[in-house]
Amino acid sequence: MTYEQAIATIENKLQAIKYPAQAAELYEPIAYLLALKGKKVRPALTLLACNLYQEDIEKAVDMALAWEIFHNFTLMHDDVMDQADVRRGQPTVHKKWDENTAILSGDAMLILAYQYVAKTGAHPEQGVCDTSLRELLDLFSTTAAEICEGQQLDMAFENRLDVQEAEYLNMIRLKTAVLLGASLKSGAIIGGANAQDAELMYDFGVNLGVAFQIQDDLLDVYGDAAVFGKKIGGDILANKKTYLSVNALNTTDAILKKSYLLWLEYNAGEATKIDNVTTIYNRLGLKEKARQAMDSYFQKALKALEQVNVPAEKKSVLKQLATDLMNRNS
Predict the structure, then answer these.
(1) What's the pTM?
(2) How many CA atoms lie within 13 A of 215 on its CB side?
(3) pLDDT of 143-169, one tens digit each?
């Protein structure tokens, strides 16, 4: 199976979801958000991981849908918390409807995701045993809780100027990376992988996810606005904690640190703030430091994938996908 085939499968299944006719206003925002164009990396990873162990990936489809629905649930609630106006080039749910709708529809979305996890074990003829279903439910619940923990840490960091690099890396591991790891691990479990392989797939995803987020931090400062999909310097204007900002706060260069702290308080002239903070990042060599950290996690991911006990040619799609994600510009 190719990545494109995995994406096509997911998109077709999402379009085929039948929502209850009762309380249609509850489900319309869900259908709206799921129909918006997105990368759908997480459900594709589930299908591709299953495909490492068997050709028939049909029994992994419900689990893949569960991850995609859950991911979009987190986005729906995140947009409310961040007061974001746009998601994937379209109005966010709370802007198109209202905040109460976004909260309640998000809750329904989480329930729907759990229903799809449960459906994974609803077809004994497909070989998903009760033991595997319990393992998948535990993985899903643990991952959901960790993502909430990551979000809470991210919120707590907003008011701190002493966040350390290790704390930041743990936050993005929880908020972003564990979902990639769990998507891969669940696909491997459904495909029949042994415990060691399933854990290696998890490690592959988590390390890839950390590298992915550091890359996102870089793109926000050094990306091309025409292809990045959002305004360059948005994290700087919001004083958001990123790999770059945390390292700027922890620099031993007293003069540059003082200057950086002053720019954090600057609220007039967006272009001026972005230019000056970027200059500080450049003088501290943080662009290169971030690239090195990103590559280090990427190499850890590839090493974990290399150890998975299936022929190398079967892993080539996942390896290429990981490489493409690291070379993205949006």
Answers:
(1) 0.94
(2) 23
(3) 999 999 999 999 999 999 999 999 999
Half-sphere exposure of 115 (CA within 13 A, CB side): 9
Residue 30 half-sphere exposure toward CB, CA atoms < 13 A? 27
Cβ atoms within 10 Å, residue 228: 17
Q: Which CA distances in Å does 247 have to 113, 155, 165, 251?
A: 37, 18, 7, 6
Residue 329 lies in a domain: no
Looking at the domain assignment, is residue 330 inside a domain? no
Identify the domain containing residue 255 by its residue range.
3-324
For the chain, what is the radius of gyration of the CA atoms? 20
The total of structural domains in the chain comes to 1
Domain of 180, CATH number, reads 1.10.600.10
Q: Tell me how far apart the alpha carbons of residues 243 and 289 are, in angstroms, rounded to a whole number.
A: 9
What are the tens digits of pLDDT across the range 61-119? 999 999 999 999 999 999 999 888 888 888 999 999 999 999 999 999 999 999 999 99
Q: CA quadruple 269, 274, 275, 281: dihedral positive or negative?
A: positive
